[in-house]
UniProtKB/TrEMBL annotation:
Cited PANTHER family: HAD SUPERFAMILY MEMBERS CMAS AND KDSC, N-ACYLNEURAMINATE CYTIDYLYLTRANSFERASE-RELATED
UniProt keyword list: Nucleotidyltransferase, Transferase
Record has Hydrolase as a keyword: no
Lineage: Bacteria, Pseudomonadati, Bacteroidota, Saprospiria, Saprospirales
Gene: rkpN_1
Xref: SUPFAM superfamilies: Nucleotide-diphospho-sugar transferases
Keyword Transport appears in the UniProt entry: no
Transmembrane segments: none
Gene Ontology molecular function: any one: N-acylneuraminate cytidylyltransferase activity
Source organism per UniProt: Portibacter lacus
Name the record gives this protein: Pseudaminic acid cytidylyltransferase
Alphabetized NCBIfam families for the sequence: PseF
Length: 230
């Protein structure tokens, strides 16, 4: 059984320049998911898909393979993650390599752990899912969402006004960390949101979106707190 880890890390980044290799607590942020993937012991190969020579060099130093560079077409702002994964799997097929399972880990996900990767893979196999995604519970019930229109604050679903928060069903969102999937299902459906999608849940301490310099600082503080065991 061959299992591939794919980390998509292109060179361009608008909001945070060189985001995929920017130092995170002294190390390129790309090195964190590579380390988690290696520690999991799951993968036959850990590769980074990039169009950038510097990123490729850092990936190699961190212990990942860069067997080929990403095409120009899939290195722009409009290429989807699915586009990149399809290209990677096709190039491996051209090299005579087939994989039964694969996991796409985002390069700016320093909170990914080997334990969660193993948990997701276990669910993928034991429940025969197409894909397993780590999710986070919304911190406040989305059924009590508000909106502002013409200066007036209103409830999106006023029927929930008098329902206690704890009595509303829990809802979740994608953590933006990784997708563990069955390759044949992905090649057939060409999307990471597949017909039979499973999930594992994360605590808010083990995930953090990094979309701005402020997010970056908060993520470093959170990561330091976790490492200190507090």
């Amino acid at each position: 059984m061959k299992i591939l880890c794919i980390i998509p890390a292109r060179g361009g980044s608008k909001r945070i320049p060189r985001k995929n290799i920017k130092p995170f607590l002294g190390k390129p942020i790309l090195s964190y998911p590579i380390s988690a993937a290696k520690k999991s012991g799951i993968f036959s190969e850990i590769m980074v898909s990039t169009d950038d020579d510097e990123i490729a060099e850092i990936a190699n130093i961190s212990g990942a393979e860069v067997p080929f560079l990403r095409s120009i077409k899939n290195a722009d702002d409009f290429a989807t993650t699915a586009d990149v994964l399809l290209e990677v799997l096709k190039k491996y097929q051209d090299l005579g390599q087939e994989f039964e399972f694969a996991c796409c880990i985002y390069p700016t996900a320093p909170f990914v752990t080997s334990e969660k990767l193993k948990e997701a893979f276990s669910v993928l196999k034991s429940q025969c899912k197409d894909v397993v995604i780590p999710v986070l519970p919304y911190e406040h019930p989305i059924q009590r969402a508000l909106f502002i229109e013409k200066g007036r604050l209103s409830m999106l679903h006023p029927e929930n006004t008098s329902i206690r928060s704890q009595d509303l069903p829990r809802r979740y969102h994608d953590s933006g960390q990784f997708y563990f999937f069955k390759v044949s299902s992905f090649l057939a459906q060409k999307t990471l949101w597949m017909k039979d999608t499973g999930a594992i849940t994360l605590s808010h301490l083990l995930a953090h979106d990094i979309d701005s310099p402020e997010d970056w600082k908060i993520a470093e503080m959170k990561y330091t707190l976790i490492q200190s065991g507090q």
